[in-house]
Automatic annotation (TrEMBL):
This is 7-cyano-7-deazaguanine synthase. The lineage of its organism: Bacteria, Pseudomonadati, Pseudomonadota, Betaproteobacteria, Burkholderiales. It is an enzyme of class 6 (ligase). Belongs to the QueC family. HAMAP family: QueC (MF_01633). NCBIfam families: 7-cyano-7-deazaguanine synthase QueC. It holds the Pfam family QueC. ATP binds at F13, S14, G15, G16, Q17, D18, S19, A20, T21, C22, L23. CDD domains: QueC-like (cd01995). GO terms for biological process: tRNA queuosine(34) biosynthetic process. InterPro entries: QueC, Rossmann-like_a/b/a_fold.
Amino acid sequence: MTRTEAKGALVLFSGGQDSATCLAWALDRYESVETLGFDYGQRHRVELECRESFRAAIARTFPAWGERLGDDHMIDLSVLGSISDTAMTREIEIETAASGLPNTFVPGRNLMFMQIAAAIAYRRGLKVLVGGMCETDFSGYPDCRDDTMKALQVALNLGMDTRFLLETPLMWLDKADTWRLAEKLGGEALVDMVRVETHTCYVGERAELHAWGFGCGGCPACKLRKRGYEAYLAGENVTEAPL
């Protein structure tokens, strides 16, 4: 199966900047696009509240995309949070763990996300799974690597006897490039929509709107988003990881 043969896609849509950009990317390419979100007990679960408003804004601002936007699915993955002692699921300070990875890493998260996405896509007749995994500014998360996604595609296709295509349009982009992709897809309207309607802050702070969006401004996610936005405005690149 090729991109041109595939007609429907399922986007892993958290409500954050990366997945929102991926949603626009998919809507620009496929005839029908559904979305999938996960509640795994994340501290920044305010992002889940952004999903509905962003979907509504997409349909309102880009009617052609709105016609392609299909059902939304929300899965309770609280079991993942219950077995994860990380700064993403616990009220603990964000720091580098003994493993060398930041303690925001939730082991198995993306692997589980993609497996569930594949099961839903199988039932819905969708052949493309789209995720915002990125190896350019990924903090070293092993489940964001291109090799991991390629291996997972093979495993899913073998295990389900089908031909899924795992798309990761941000894999080799830094945050400045991600802003640029949004502009390329939907102009200033989409950039502003991503800036205002999405959420990235790890601690879930959404009280103050900065030039780059809502957030605490101090966590790794906010710092990276801010640097990326400033570099995007300046026509530069950002390759530094959050931690």
